[in-house]
């Protein structure tokens, strides 16, 4: 079983920045593809960004391209999401996820392991 623990959420003004972290426990970090997802009240869970361990390829949903950056530090078993130029519509609970399976749809929320989430609130 893989355990994931997110941190770094908080409240920020529009245009500000936050960096989310996801620590992974229980297995080797490089054996899993990783992703960040978010869910606002009353909305479906949305894939924000993903990264593949094989070649480091990254994927982003259109609304965050150019503003968010996903990265990983394998030595520290930690995943990051750098969020810049934040907008009120980015407000959501953000979740880290991991999965050992290959997929052709990186932002699909069908991941095997999930963290408990960290809240991000952006005010105008």
How is this structure best described in words?
The structure is a single chain. The protein has strands at residues 3-7, 10-13, 18-25, 33-39, 46-51, 58-60, 68-73, 78-83, 92-99, 113-114, 118-123. By secondary structure, the chain is mainly β. Strands 2, 4, 5, 6, 9, 10 and 11 form a seven-stranded mixed β-sheet that branches. The protein is globular. The model has no long low-confidence stretch (mean pLDDT 94).
Low-confidence stretches: none
Q: Provide the structure class.
A: mainly beta
Radius of gyration: 13 Å
Mean pLDDT: 94
Globally, the shape reads: globular
Helix and strand string, N-terminal first? EEEEEEEEEEE
Q: What portion of residues is helical? A: under 10%
Query: Could you give the count of β-strands?
Result: 11
Distance between the termini: 40 Å
Q: How many individual helices? A: 0
Share of residues in strands: over 45%
Q: Main β-sheet: number of strands, strand sense, barrel status?
A: 7 strands, mixed
Please name the defining characteristics of this protein.
124 residues, mainly beta, 11 strands
Secondary structure elements and their pairing?
Layout: E1 3-7, E2 10-13, E3 18-25, E4 33-39, E5 46-51, E6 58-60, E7 68-73, E8 78-83, E9 92-99, E10 113-114, E11 118-123
Parallel strand pairs: 2-11
Antiparallel strand pairs: 1-3, 3-8, 4-5, 4-9, 5-6, 7-8, 9-10, 9-11
């Amino acid at each position: 079983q893989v355990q994931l623990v997110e941190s770094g959420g908080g409240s920020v003004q529009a245009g500000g920045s936050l960096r989310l972290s996801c620590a992974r426990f229980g297995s080797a970090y490089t054996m899993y593809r990783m992703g960040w997802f978010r869910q606002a009240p009353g909305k479906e869970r949305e894939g924000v960004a993903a990264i593949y361990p094989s070649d480091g390829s990254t994927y982003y949903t259109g609304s965050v391209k150019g503003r968010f950056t996903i990265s990983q530090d394998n030595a520290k078993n930690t995943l990051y999401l750098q969020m810049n130029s934040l907008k009120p519509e980015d407000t959501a609970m953000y979740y880290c996820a991991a999965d050992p399976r290959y997929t052709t749809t990186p932002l699909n929320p069908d991941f095997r392991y999930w963290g408990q989430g960290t809240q991000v609130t952006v005010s105008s």
